[in-house]
Amino acid sequence: METPFDEYSERVQKHLENVYGIRVVTRDIPDPLTGDLDGAEIDIDYAIIPEQRLFLLAHLFGHTVQWNVNPALFEIGRQYRPPLNEDLIPAVIAYEREAACYGLAVLHEIGIMDIDQWFCDYTACDQAYLLHFYRTGEKRDFPSFWTGNAPLLQPHPIPRFTPTRRAFRMDGIVI
User: Phi then psi for 102, rounded to 5 degrees?
Assistant: First the structure.
């Protein structure tokens, strides 16, 4: 059975807006980004495919939770210039993993339980892409990092938070 990415994206967007008070905006996002966030709003590029949209909604929600629960994590999301000091890599990995665990939790919260492996594979690809860029400065084709069968993540309980506007990545923030 084919995954209904459009339907799932709509459900996630409505949930983020109605339950968490996070505004979701579809607009042109300047390359190379496909999504943006500021702690109270998630912006998604209008030109992406439904699969990318679903991943970005869940993933950027995870970062939104992080920024609002622990404002110090906002700093980990700041844009680094490659090559990134290897001492910073474990913090980046932990930051990305936690965001993914919150993203998976929001999917489960609305009953989307059949795409865990896809979400974990997409997360692993995203993280491999990001780490390669931070280490080398090279932006390779995203799908070239896809391996499949990534270890399954466990959803983290989503803590209570109040969305608070900080800054968009376009203002110097990256993933």
Answer: -70, -40
- One-letter amino acid at 148 equals G
Residue 83 exposure: Cα atoms within 13 Å on the Cβ side: 5
Q: Which helix (DSSP H) or strand (DSSP E) does residue 134 occupy?
A: helix 116-136
Rounded Cα distance, 29 and 118, in Å: 25
Nearest Cα residue to 29 out of 154, 175, 135, 165: 175
| 64, two tokens | 């939104």
Measured CA to CA, the distance from residue 26 to residue 89 in angstroms comes to 31
Which residue in the block uniquely carries the two structure tokens 């490659």? 82
Residue 158 lies in domain? 5-171
Whole-model pTM: value is 0.93
Torsion, Cα 85 148 152 134, to 10 degrees, reads 10
Domain count, the chain: 1
Span 155-174, pLDDT tens digits: 999 999 999 998 765 554 44
Note the pLDDT tens digit of each residue in 62-85.
999 999 999 888 877 665 678 988
Strands (E), the chain: 23-27, 35-37, 41-45
Question: C-alpha angle with apex 85: 79 to 87, nearest 5 degrees?
Answer: 110
